């Protein structure tokens, strides 16, 4: 009698996972991919930021200028309150930077699946913002204690822009550093072809490390 064989896990990454991967160097890349693979195999994962994102979206949708953000830290479980308290000031500052609350609206974004070579990457902005002048932004939030690196910003914005027709047509991709209240947009002079080649190489290495971690 032969032992049952497990179905191999297909290499796959979320936008968050892939951009965190490209920001790493040397052996830490392999360790990181191995961790992603184990998490995928165990199907374990928890998003501590869910209620925070919901509150921020509510402030945009209902033109309340930060009222929901002010309240959310008191509404989460005590273990998450220090995290939320660290996030609220920057998020509120960014929200105010958008202008008068009545001049912005929430826009619905859709997830998309990017293929980098043979690696599927899920492109999932948190929400969109529609301004009174008709311009639209697709927003991805960065929650980490450390600011996003140039590599993280470039990879995130490029992949969002690459699939914007599916995500939120005619929108500009924006990565918001929540803790510092800063919005990052695609730097001037970036050559998409060069970014594409860089990310393709990173994706090929990711697949290789994923297989090695099996």
Question: How would you describe this structure to a colleague?
Answer:
There is one protein chain. The chain is α/β, with parallel strands linked by helices. The protein has one domain. The strands form two sheets. The chain has a five-stranded mixed beta sheet, sandwiched between helices. A three-stranded mixed beta sheet has the order 1-4-3. Helix 3 packs parallel to helix 5 and helix 4 runs antiparallel to helix 5.
Furnish the topology, listing elements before pairings.
Blueprint: E1 13-14, H1 15-22, H2 27-42, H3 50-61, H4 67-75, H5 81-97, E2 104-107, E3 112-116, E4 119-123, E5 127-131, E6 136-142, H6 150-162, H7 164-167, E7 172-177, E8 182-184, H8 192-212
Parallel strand pairs: 1-4, 6-7
Antiparallel strand pairs: 2-5, 3-4, 5-6, 7-8
Helix pairs in contact: 1-6, 2-8, 3-4, 3-5, 4-5
Oligomer: single chain
Ends distance = 24 Å
Question: What gyration radius follows from the Cα positions, in whole Å?
Answer: 19 Å
What sequence of helices (H) and strands (E) makes up the elements? EHHHHHEEEEEHHEEH
Count of discrete structural domains: 1
| Coarse morphology | globular
Low-confidence stretches: 1-7
Q: Structural class from helices and strands?
A: alpha/beta
Main sheet strand line-up: 2-5-6-7-8
For the secondary structure, the number of strands is 8
User: How would a textbook summarize the main sheet?
Assistant: 5 strands, mixed
Beta-strand content: 15-25%
Helical segment tally?
A: 8
Overall pLDDT confidence: 93
Helicity, as a percent range: 40-55%
């Amino acid at each position: 009698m032969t032992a049952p064989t497990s179905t191999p896990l297909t290499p796959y990454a979320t936008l968050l996972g892939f951009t965190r991967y490209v920001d790493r160097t040397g052996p830490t890349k392999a360790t990181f991919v191995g961790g992603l693979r184990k998490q995928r195999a165990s199907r374990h994962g928890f998003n501590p930021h869910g209620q925070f994102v919901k509150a921020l979206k509510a402030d945009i949708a209902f033109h309340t200028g930060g009222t929901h953000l002010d309240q959310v830290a008191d509404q989460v479980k005590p273990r998450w309150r220090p995290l939320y308290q660290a996030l609220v000031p920057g998020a509120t500052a960014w929200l105010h930077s958008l202008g008068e609350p009545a001049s912005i609206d929430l826009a619905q974004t859709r997830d998309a699946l990017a293929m980098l070579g043979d690696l599927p990457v899920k492109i999932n902005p948190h929400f969109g913002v529609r301004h009174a002048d008709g311009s639209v932004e697709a927003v991805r939030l960065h929650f980490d204690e450390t600011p996003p690196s140039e590599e993280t910003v470039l990879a995130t914005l490029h992949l969002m822009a690459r699939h914007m027709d599916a995500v939120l047509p005619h929108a500009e991709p924006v990565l918001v550093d929540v803790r510092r209240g800063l919005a990052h947009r695609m730097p001037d002079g970036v050559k998409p072809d060069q970014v594409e080649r860089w990310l393709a190489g990173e994706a090929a290495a990711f697949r290789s490390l994923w297989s090695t971690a099996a």
